[in-house]
């Protein structure tokens, strides 16, 4: 038994694994939980993040508008399933108008560290980079400096300092639909200056684990366990019809998270249902958040489906640990 280090969350969304199901991650039966037109302006609501907040939940949602402008919106829920999403995007406050200037914002992650909620997202600043902001109440948001030079996507904070530093995994990229991509680890004393970059893991050449042969990128906030950091990530293959985005998982060393202890050879969830295979960008399952219950080891994954709607799926820490141990990726 692996233990999640964290809080109990007994009321989080949950369904038992269906009888006879053989995969380690199973979908919520009422998926998708957020439709493409959940707010008046939206064309699609997908790669989005949620956290426990007050006696319920809060989140930051990627809503693309009907002009296909990408922005991020706050939302609230009592049960983590039914969401009220603000009709206006987040307005950031901050010190420097140069940084506050919005080009585009997408694929948010939310991470509670110490006393506040940090938002990271793909932020347009002469190309994609990682924006960082914090909030206490999901009403006022303070934007900090971008973490990196362009080009970078998928900046994902760790939920506590590691060896005295804030820590982040990210995926250096290019200006377009990046045809490469490895995960790197960076640290910061103050969430402004990032350095000591370390290679964590990369795409897998050949056909040993071809679903992740083009690029990979970190997904939800890493989950702390007594065996290491459990990282759920996306992996991409290039097919004759374009990219296919699946989910995988890895276990990173607790004190030196750039050291990979386990990684699954097989994907844990892939586009199979109609709402994952069919949409604005077909064949995309893109995880950006989890809720976890330390008492039971339950994990609820929030993921974007076909760049159009938002879905939920379930697993447990032991399901993922056993899957990685039974199907290890030995490079
Ligand atoms: C990536 C990002 C994601 C998107 C995915 C599939 O590069 O843009 O937001 O879900 O492509 O289109």
**What percent of residues adopt helix (DSSP H or I)?**
under 10%
Looking at the structure, the CATH topology is Tachylectin-2, Chain A
- How would a textbook summarize the main sheet? 5 strands, mixed
Strand order of the largest sheet: 6-10-9-8-7
Mean pLDDT: 98
Q: What is the total number of structural domains?
A: 1
CATH superfamily: Glycosyl hydrolase domain, family 43
How many strand units? 22
Task: Give the name of the CATH architecture.
Answer: 5 Propeller
Radius of gyration of CA atoms, rounded to a whole number: 18 Å
Distance between the termini: 26 Å
Which CATH class applies here? Answer: Mainly Beta
Looking at the structure, what is the overall shape?
Answer: globular
Bound molecules: beta-D-mannopyranose
The H/E string reads EEEEEEHEEEEEEEEEEEEEHEEEH
Helices, by number, come to 3
How would you summarize this macromolecular structure in one to three sentences?
The protein is mainly beta. It has helices at 97-100, 274-277, 317-326, and strands at 26-27, 42-53, 56-65, 70-77, 84-85, 92-94, 105-113, 116-124, 128-135, 141-143, 152-157, 166-172, 183-188, 195-201, 215-218, 223-225, 228-239, 242-252, 260-263, 285-293, 298-305, 309-316. Helices cover 5% and strands 46% of the residues.
3D structure, described in words:
This protein has 331 residues and is mainly β. It has a single domain (26-326), classed as Glycosyl hydrolase domain, family 43 (Tachylectin-2, Chain A, 5 Propeller), CATH 2.115.10. It contains three helices and 22 strands. The chain has a five-stranded mixed beta sheet. Strands 15, 16, 17, 18 and 19 form a five-stranded antiparallel beta sheet that branches. A hairpin with a 2-residue loop joins strand 2 (42-53) and strand 3. Residues 47, 106-107, 177, 245, 281, 284, 286, 304, 307 line the site of beta-D-mannopyranose.
